[in-house]
From TrEMBL:
PANTHER family the UniProt entry points to: INNER MEMBRANE PROTEIN YEDE, SULPHUR TRANSPORT DOMAIN-CONTAINING PROTEIN
Keyword Repeat included in the entry's annotation: no
Protein known as: Sulphur transport domain-containing protein
Residue stretches spanning the membrane: 125-143, 178-202, 223-243, 263-279, 311-329, 341-360
Membrane topology of this protein: Multi-pass membrane protein
One Gene Ontology term, aspect cellular component: plasma membrane
Keywords: Cell inner membrane, Cell membrane, Membrane, Transmembrane, Transmembrane helix, Transport
Coiled-coil features, chain-numbered ranges: none
Entry-linked InterPro entries: DUF6691 (IPR046513), Sulf_transp_TsuA/YedE (IPR007272)
Subcellular location, record wording: Cell inner membrane
The species this protein was found in: Saccharomycopsis crataegensis
Amino acid sequence: MFSPVESAIGALLIQCATTSYIWHSGKVIGFSSLINGIFDPNVENVSIVSGIIMASLFVAYKIPDFSPIYQPVASVDLLEHQVDTSFPLYVVVSGLLVGAGTKFGCGCTSGHFLAGVSRLRLRSIIATAVFVIVGIVTVKIAGNGAVCYTETSNGEIVPTNCYVYDENFSIFQNNKMALLSVVFGGICTSYILIPILAKVLVTNGGAANQKTSSVTNSWFLKYLTGVNAGFLFGLGLFISGMVNPTKTIGFLSILTPSRFDPSLMLIAIFAILPNIVIWKKSIPQTKSELQVKKPLLTENYSLNFSNTVDLKFLFGNVLFGVGWGLYGVCPGPGLIGALGFNQWDGVYWLMSFLAGSWLAKKLN
């Protein structure tokens, strides 16, 4: 179902998360790197994952309408409510390809699409174009996605459009207060509360020549920043529908109009466009600006400025696009699925992702 209001709200939450995190920690949120760092935990990884777990619990208990529906998107018949219950080989293949693709292609949807395009990096724009186009072609060739039918007045069953527009905004109306509260809260924590705490705690700790206190305050704020970013980013993924494979497959079904769902286009409008404007003024755009613009909680920004586009890079993003198109899952939603919302399929995907990343690292 085309859900512009919910998708816009989810995008705004993602925008708050990504901007707050880069302002304070000096880094972008890259879920492929986050997952690959699972065996070498640090304050950034642990805090963001903690926030994502909190977001998952919030959705489950407060806004269950946004709990993802995981179905074998390669074999779904909504008329008969039948699905293929055999071992999901395509889930494993998807994880392997996405994992390898992120290594060769130097990032994923969060790193290239959300952060890289927000920074107007040429190679992130190229990467995004490659894996989106390849994902669209993969969905078309595989023929996956929902198949919907309707019954005519004379009893005939005919195919129909799966992604109709909800004119009554029923899901939004049912969850209006919760959704508006998290948006207001996300704006306050990201743009008011954490910046004030950063200036008060870190500055005062240093001014009083209390090095230990300053370090402790900085660690606490880094953790708070990560939890806030993980919580808002996780909620944004849930509310926008990005954690739902059928929603993503619907977005990639642009070549099959009856299955096309444009909802995720609003991520670009309400997350990336504001970031482009905000980051242009506040985030270093060149290496020389690293000496001028500083994050609040670290000494320098940790950003990649390379625009190298070679065959390996393009090949990696092609692999990513194929894997994304097969199952409709990228690293962020894949991590959420493995944390409990998708039971074994999520675990299969995540383990395959790690295997694909490891193999690509060996071959790199």
